[in-house]
Structures are given as structure tokens and as C-alpha cells.
Write a structure and sequence with these properties.
375 residues; alpha/beta; Rossmann fold; 5-stranded parallel beta sheet; 11 helices; 7 strands; 9% strand; globular
């Protein structure tokens, strides 16, 4: 970081240094008490990018599933998709990082969050009871149970970071011009060095200001690495989302007993200090790890979001943002995505009959059908 940037950062974090001692880290539940875990192999799917954009773009332009190309020839060995044309951007990135529609959806979500937080902050201020929206360790999606808030426990809103609080513009711009598999080391380098190449998600700054003005703590819970905590603090602060203190209002991968990418253990640790009245994320795992249980199909996850026990949480404690670029939402073949009892075949579709060519016109002797040649 340049000296100028460091000086700016020191001005922004100055208020943190004067706010008192950093609170001791709250005890974390032992690994044996943790409920469901995520099963993502080596990749944390809430970090960019689970599907390399070049591969996603190639897939989006390929023949639709189940419809073989007319000239398809079986290959003895898999081929590596070609790199995207220079300067092109995959459709999901066009939407999330470039469209007014994505900006409007994000602002809409954060305005709804603001209204919710102001109301709950008023309840807390006058002594009315407030409730946690964090599922308890023994909860299931079919039988959800929530943690209890202690008397006068300060309320908090918990936000994911990547594509929820921050847009990783620098990383994704670079990623859009690459092909090949996801590289965790490259993402680690981004965490450590990309602090000035991010923007706040549209709407988040106003929501964070409103939360703090209402006496509600703003806490971040991310699968960014704990080893890069100082760089993540810089990124959040320079984007206008500070003050941020690790283990106080910033929790990262490696900060709990499991050390894994599941976020429930960290949510329970945060709940030991605060009454979590709202959560914001771009993936279902930002609300409970139960959505990422091993073997759960895309159709089952979708059905659970609309179940009678959970559907009223959306916009009433759980606030979700769009992310068509990477993550747990981007799964499923044609049978996962489109129910077989909702398929349609065009009843008017007819094979295209060959049209006979017109008979050649008689040609008079001495005439030519060739075009004139320019001299």
C-alpha cells in the first residue's frame, strides 16, 4: 500500500483507535456441537469464483443440454475450452457488475433491510423484546428453532462480505479474461493486495449508517481467510464500511473451532455477544449451513426456501442479494432445473421441407449468363 493510501486509511480508522479496548473473543462452540457442515471439497463456494468465467461463457454458448449438435463428433479425449475473446465479459458478470438492474435489486434489498432495522432498533430502545434469526444448533430446515436473546442483549445485523458488502471488481475483471480452473492461491493474493479495487454494493452504505444510528452493531461474517484479516479490514474501511475490528465485528474462516467454510459456528459465536436480528448474504449458506448439507439437490434447496416454516424469513430477518457469477446457486442439469412435468414441445413445429430450385430459363444463342467483367 502506498504512503498516501496508508495515510488515508489511518484517517478512516482513527475513530476505532479511540473507541476503547478490543473486546475479548467470545468462546466458540466445540466442533462436536456443530450441526451440519458444508461439503465443497477444496473450494469455498461463497468466494469468487466456483466456475471460471471462461468456462461458464463457453457453456452458455454451447448446444442446449439434451439436444446434440447436428455435426457433433464424439471425441476420444476432453478438450480445454478456448479463452474468451479479449474484452468480452460473461453474462453473469455483465449483470452483477455492470447492469442497472442488479444495482436496483441490491438497493431494494438494502432499503428493505433499513426499514426492518429501524423498526427493530426502536423496539429495543423502548424495551420491547427482540428475537434472533439465527438457527439453533439442534434446528433442522423442517423444524427450525432459533437462538434466544439475553435480556437487553445489544442487537446486531450480520453481513457476508463478497458480493454482499463488497463487489470484487478488480478480481472479477481479471477473472473474466482467463480460462482454466479456480486457483485458491490467486484468490489469496487478491485478498492481500486488492483492497483498493473493490466497491461497496449499491445500498449497503446507507443501510450500515442507519443500523449504527439505531444502536445496532454491524458484524461481518466471511469465508475470507483469517490470515488476511488486516487486508480485509483495509478493504472494508476504504469502502466506507468501517470501523472494523477482527473477532469483534469481523469473523473470518479460521476464527472458529472447525476452521472450515461453514458459517454456523461463527454465527453462534457472534450470538453469544449480540442478538442477531438480521442477516444479509448472496448465498443460502449465509443464513444456515443446513442449506448446504451433503446430497441436497438444487430442487430440494429451492423447495426449502419456500417452505411454510422458512418463507416468511425472507425480507423479515433474512435478506438475500443477487449473484449469478459464482457459488452454491449455480448447480443443476436440465432435470434439476426444469421439472419433467413442466416440459413443453412446440405443437406447431414442422420439419422444413426442401424447396425445389426453379428450372433454368432458356438461353438464347450467343448470349451469356455471366455478369459483365469490368475492364
Amino acid at each position: 500500500m502506498t504512503k498516501g493510501r496508508l495515510a488515508l486509511l489511518m484517517l478512516l480508522v482513527g475513530s476505532t483507535a479511540n473507541s476503547g479496548c478490543v473486546a475479548a473473543a467470545v468462546p466458540v462452540l466445540a466442533a462436536g456441537a456443530i450441526g451440519k457442515k458444508q461439503f465443497f471439497g477444496k473450494k469455498d463456494e461463497d468466494l469468487p469464483s466456483a466456475t471460471p468465467p471462461a468456462l461458464a461463457a463457453a457453456s452458455a454458448q454451447s448446444t442446449p443440454a439434451g439436444i446434440p449438435a447436428a455435426d457433433a463428433i464424439p471425441s476420444a479425449a476432453p478438450t480445454t475450452p478456448a479463452a474468451p475473446p479479449p474484452g468480452s465479459v460473461p453474462p453473469g458478470m455483465q449483470y452483477l457488475y455492470g447492469s442497472g438492474e442488479a444495482s436496483a435489486v441490491s438497493i431494494q434489498a438494502y432499503l428493505s433491510l433499513t426499514d426492518f432495522l429501524v423498526a427493530r432498533g426502536g423496539d429495543f430502545a423502548v424495551g420491547h423484546p427482540i428475537s434472533s434469526v439465527v438457527l439453533a444448533p439442534d434446528a433442522t430446515l423442517d423444524a427450525p428453532k432459533f437462538l434466544k436473546c439475553g435480556p437487553r442483549q445489544r442487537p446486531a445485523v450480520v453481513l457476508d462480505i463478497d458480493e454482499t458488502a463488497l463487489l470484487n471488481l478488480g478480481y472479477e475483471a481479471d477473472d473474466s479474461q482467463r480460462s482454466g480452473a479456480y486457483d485458491q492461491k490467486r484468490w489469496d493474493r487478491w485478498e492481500a493486495s486488492g483492497v483498493t479495487a473493490v466497491d461497496p454494493v449499491p445500498g449497503v452504505l446507507d443501510a450500515v449508517r442507519a443500523a449504527r444510528a439505531s444502536g445496532i452493531e454491524v458484524v461481518f461474517n466471511s469465508n475470507r481467510s483469517s490470515a488476511n484479516a488486516s487486508a480485509t479490514i483495509d478493504a472494508l474501511t476504504l469502502a466506507g464500511l468501517g470501523p472494523v475490528v477482527h473477532w469483534q465485528n469481523l469473523w473470518l474462516k479460521g476464527d472458529d473451532a472447525t476452521g472450515g467454510s461453514g458459517k454456523d459456528a461463527r454465527r453462534w459465536a457472534i450470538s453469544a455477544k449480540y442478538c442477531v436480528i438480521a442477516m444479509v448474504g448472496d448465498q443460502l449458506g449465509d443464513f444456515t449451513d443446513l442449506f448446504n448439507a451433503s446430497g441436497m439437490t438444487p430442487a430440494q434447496r429451492r423447495a426449502q426456501t419456500n417452505s411454510p416454516k422458512l418463507r416468511m424469513l425472507w425480507g423479515h430477518g433474512w435478506f438475500v442479494l443477487p449473484n449469478p457469477v459464482y457459488g452454491t446457486a449455480l448447480k443443476g442439469d436440465i432435470d434439476d432445473v426444469f421439472p419433467k412435468d413442466r416440459r413443453w414441445t412446440d405443437p406447431g413445429a414442422q420439419p422444413i421441407a426442401a424447396t425445389p430450385l426453379p428450372a433454368p430459363s432458356p438461353v438464347s444463342a450467343g448470349t451469356s449468363t455471366s455478369p459483365p467483367v469490368k475492364k
